[in-house]
């Protein structure tokens, strides 16, 4: 049967989230205006297709069994003006390079997922931001309001949801072109590198690319079929935060009658919105997309078991990923017991490490930043702990950019507090720059190789 999406006969689960407590939502002035936008969105074509989502689900199942590894990366908060061809290409290139480093180093297929084409909304710690005695609503991502510190900019505007859709569509179009049209061909492995090879990460990558090149030339010489290396699958992902947007993009798959959220392939529920009876959990439970849940240091095995009952009642492998973000200081205290008890409960989960969100600090110069060493230490600890408990370290989830930003302290180039000001671009959380991302990939390859 041809895959189409219909909005007509809508199953009841679709609306089950309504009426549940919904945290971190914009407070719109005019809900009629919101309804106009969401009615329009409901008529728009899906951004992703059920068949693609199902393919990703199978790959996540493989990762849960240790047969592949998940790499999720991209901005903390995408911006509309930052959704340009150059910036998206640089992010894709970074993800491709990291996955080559990991799969070559650890002989493991890497499933590539971008926090791209939809990561436009943010949960915030505080509803208001105060500067010089003036308080305004916090910036909640370009899908909600503007970053500029004026009342007008900070007013939540429902029309931004339509722009989120449009930007996501053009970004996905570009991703599809890059990953299908020759750019992602493994024979381009050298061309993805850039910068000077006196940079340790680039030099290391250059060596590895040389080895891959020789192997490919050998394969070519013996007449291998190169179809499989000429394109890659790069899936899209974002935090499923804005309930009305995600609802408008949820469609019935005509092949099966099942609901799919067609705004992205993979969706995750944030640490701040993972309440068992909350709207976010209910909404994600109703769709067939694979779902991730962020878990901070207060998460317990009881939380996870209860969440699994709601989100993954049939215990499908790969459907539920647990994205732990404990922080380098707390991981040894929190993660071992969590993994042990979840394993003892016998529920299938995919363990993923987010080494970013438990390691946020403010620099002496006032920047929101992270230490590269903390990030590396949390990843290394994650592997050690998960393996020790007899479970499988299935992936990493990181905030990165393909650009040479100065947002995370340290790394081979030893970025200092003073250097943060040079090229600090993020509107919310600090991201690994291009070379720090590669350095992390080498660590992952090493850790994975030991498993
Ligand atoms: O990824 C995002 C941030 O950690 C989250 O939005 C909270 O940030 P805040 O504490 O600056 O509000
Ligand atoms: C807000 C985020 O994470 P968490 O929900 O883990 O704080 C994020 O991934 O940007
Ligand atoms: Mn973030």
UniProtKB/TrEMBL annotation:
<keyword id="KW-0057">Aromatic amino acid biosynthesis</keyword>
<dbReference type="GO" id="GO:0008652">
    <property type="term" value="P:amino acid biosynthetic process"/>
</dbReference>
<feature type="region of interest" description="Disordered">
    <location>
        <begin position="1"/>
        <end position="22"/>
    </location>
</feature>
<feature type="binding site">
    <location>
        <begin position="271"/>
        <end position="272"/>
    </location>
    <ligand>
        <name>phosphoenolpyruvate</name>
    </ligand>
</feature>
<dbReference type="InterPro" id="IPR002480">
    <property type="entry name" value="DAHP_synth_2"/>
</dbReference>
<keyword id="KW-0808">Transferase</keyword>
<protein>
    <recommendedName>
        <fullName>Phospho-2-dehydro-3-deoxyheptonate aldolase</fullName>
        <ecNumber>2.5.1.54</ecNumber>
    </recommendedName>
</protein>
<keyword id="KW-0464">Manganese</keyword>
<feature type="binding site">
    <location>
        <position position="294"/>
    </location>
    <ligand>
        <name>phosphoenolpyruvate</name>
    </ligand>
</feature>
<dbReference type="GO" id="GO:0003849">
    <property type="term" value="F:3-deoxy-7-phosphoheptulonate synthase activity"/>
</dbReference>
<dbReference type="GO" id="GO:0009073">
    <property type="term" value="P:aromatic amino acid family biosynthetic process"/>
</dbReference>
<comment type="pathway">
    <text>Metabolic intermediate biosynthesis; chorismate biosynthesis; chorismate from D-erythrose 4-phosphate and phosphoenolpyruvate: step 1/7.</text>
</comment>
<feature type="binding site">
    <location>
        <position position="357"/>
    </location>
    <ligand>
        <name>Mn(2+)</name>
    </ligand>
</feature>
<feature type="binding site">
    <location>
        <position position="429"/>
    </location>
    <ligand>
        <name>Mn(2+)</name>
    </ligand>
</feature>
<feature type="compositionally biased region" description="Polar residues">
    <location>
        <begin position="1"/>
        <end position="10"/>
    </location>
</feature>
<keyword id="KW-0104">Cadmium</keyword>
<feature type="binding site">
    <location>
        <position position="115"/>
    </location>
    <ligand>
        <name>phosphoenolpyruvate</name>
    </ligand>
</feature>
<feature type="binding site">
    <location>
        <position position="399"/>
    </location>
    <ligand>
        <name>Mn(2+)</name>
    </ligand>
</feature>
<dbReference type="InterPro" id="IPR013785">
    <property type="entry name" value="Aldolase_TIM"/>
</dbReference>
<dbReference type="GO" id="GO:0009423">
    <property type="term" value="P:chorismate biosynthetic process"/>
</dbReference>
<keyword id="KW-0028">Amino-acid biosynthesis</keyword>
<comment type="similarity">
    <text>Belongs to the class-II DAHP synthase family.</text>
</comment>
<keyword id="KW-0170">Cobalt</keyword>
<feature type="binding site">
    <location>
        <position position="325"/>
    </location>
    <ligand>
        <name>phosphoenolpyruvate</name>
    </ligand>
</feature>
<feature type="binding site">
    <location>
        <position position="76"/>
    </location>
    <ligand>
        <name>Mn(2+)</name>
    </ligand>
</feature>
<dbReference type="Pfam" id="PF01474">
    <property type="entry name" value="DAHP_synth_2"/>
</dbReference>
